[in-house]
Amino acid sequence: MTNLEIIKSTYEGGSSEQNGKNTALALAPDARWTEAAGFPYAGTYIGFEAVKKNVFDRLASEWIDYKLTIEDYIADGDQVAAYGTYSGVNKKTGKPFTARVTHIWKLHNKKVIAFEQFVDSKSVTDAME
Length: 129
Description:
The protein has helices at residues 3-11, 16-26, 48-62, 122-128; strands spanning 27-35, 43-46, 63-76, 79-90, 96-108, 111-119. The chain is an alpha+beta fold and 129 residues long.
């Protein structure tokens, strides 16, 4: 698989469960995953289990129909960017949101070594209040 195909598999696996499995396979054991400052799950997490606990599990438990609709990808060597729009409804408040987002992935030897999120967090945090 190319680096672009590896990253696409984390978004286009056919189901959230499959995307999670593909992400777990794609990440190096010590991969650094950074959620943007100001985002509800902000921070840097090391390895898939930390990402699952601090990001994926919370997204699943705090939102209805939380999703990322990918608009396109940009690939250059060991870096891939994916950009699009997050959307969902907060379970606690019932408020919907949409937010523009870009993910930057860095790979080495076909494994993700770093992920960084850039997102317009205001609409997400507003939906939670």
